[in-house]
Amino acid sequence: MKGARKLLTESGHAALEMAVTMPFWFIMIVGLSNLGFIIRETQLISDSTRHGARTAASFANSGMSCIDIKEEAGKFAKNYLQQSGIDSADWAIKPEIKTVTGFNPSINVLEISIKPAGQTNCLICAQNFLSLIDFKTSSSFALEGTCS
After folding, report:
1. In sequence order, which ranges of the chain are alpha helices (DSSP H)?
2. Is 8 helix (H, G, I), strand (E, B) or coil?
3. Residue 108, strand partner residues
């Protein structure tokens, strides 16, 4: 009789333990998958700055003006984001050309920086999380010539 009582009292413990722990496991799995999306998006955004700056920096020898090179750099970065599946409207892309003095002749450097443009309409998306941690990235490349 003692064995039968023991079986009756412990029969629901496993189901109860599972009911209590499953929400925690579910939250952990969803959180890890979101973290993976955030890491992927930060990598793609960083790649877009590098791609835009590197590609536009090679135009310096073509006789383009500095303003045109900056515009092209912004376009390349924006296109890279869109091809990667990231909405470029959610990100502020700022290309600029800086002159580094102290060299003979001075060097023009193209820098592209990207940061969140504002809040999006989604509740759980990488851009909102990156806004919370003040995410921004930039890449710089020396122009291969001079621009006017």
Report:
1. 2-10, 13-57, 66-83, 126-132
2. helix
3. 99
What is the pTM (predicted TM-score) of this model?
A: 0.69
Read off the tokens for 117.
């443009």
**CB atoms inside a 10 Å sphere around CB 56:** 26
> In angstroms, rounded to a whole number, what is the distance separating the alpha carbons of residues 138 and 93?
10
- Tokens 């900056």 belong to residue: 70
Q: At what angle do helices 66-83 and 13-57 cross, to 10 degrees?
A: 150
Closest C-alpha among 90, 95, 108 to residue 44? 90
> Which residue's entry shows tokens 């799995």?
29
How many residues appear in the chain? 148
Partner residues linked to 111 by β-bridges: 96, 140
Task: Give the span between the Cα atoms of 35 and 31, in whole angstroms.
Answer: 6
Contact 65, 148 (CB under 8 A): yes
Under 8 Å between Cβ of 100 and 110: no
What are 59-83's pLDDT values in tens digits?
777 778 888 888 888 899 899 989 9
Are 27 and 92 within 8 A, CB to CB? no
